[in-house]
Write a structure and sequence with these properties.
Elements (H helix, E strand, L loop, with lengths): L4 H23 L16 E3 L14 E8 L3 E2 L3 E9 L4 E6 L3 E3 L4 E5 L4 E10 L4 E11 L1
Parallel strand pairs: 3-9
Antiparallel strand pairs: 1-2, 2-4, 4-7, 5-8, 6-7, 8-9
């Protein structure tokens, strides 16, 4: 079966659009920020790293975030545990890059891009809140 000139041009345009889209996805993906050699399988405890407010009375405290492993390899996951005490605690997690899975005091982080990023957790008891931000490195 023969294609008309219009159908051939339309097919050619679709191929061009697909190739441009694929090229864009590849170029806009992850970029390596440094060539540092890092070791894996380590567990780190962070306490008092950036933005830690003073605990103001009561039984509420948020003292540290433990992350294991850090650094991580692309496509693997690190477990994060927020160590906090108090009643009716809420946990709000965020990251500068990557994905967070789960809720509460223990969650997981994974990323598909090489780089150095941050993870932030804010713990609140409804009256007081404390925020801790920690570094995480992702490599291949």
């Amino acid at each position: 079966m023969f294609l008309s000139k219009f159908d051939r041009n339309n097919l050619s345009m679709r191929k061009s659009i697909f190739l441009l889209f694929a090229f864009y996805v590849i170029l806009s993906g992850c970029t390596k920020t440094n060539n540092d050699v890092v070791s894996y399988g380590l567990s780190k405890n962070y306490s008092g790293v950036n933005n830690v407010s003073a605990n103001t009375g009561g039984a509420f405290s948020f003292t540290k975030i433990t992350i294991s492993p850090n650094p991580i390899k692309i496509g693997t996951a690190s477990k994060l545990i927020a160590t906090a005490t108090g009643n009716n605690l809420t946990y709000k997690w965020s990251t500068s890059h990557g994905d967070l899975f789960g809720t509460g005091a223990a969650i997981y982080y994974s990323d598909s891009c090489i780089g150095n990023y941050t993870i932030t957790c804010t713990v609140s008891d409804g009256t007081h809140s404390v925020t801790i931000t920690i570094p995480i490195s992702v490599s291949n």
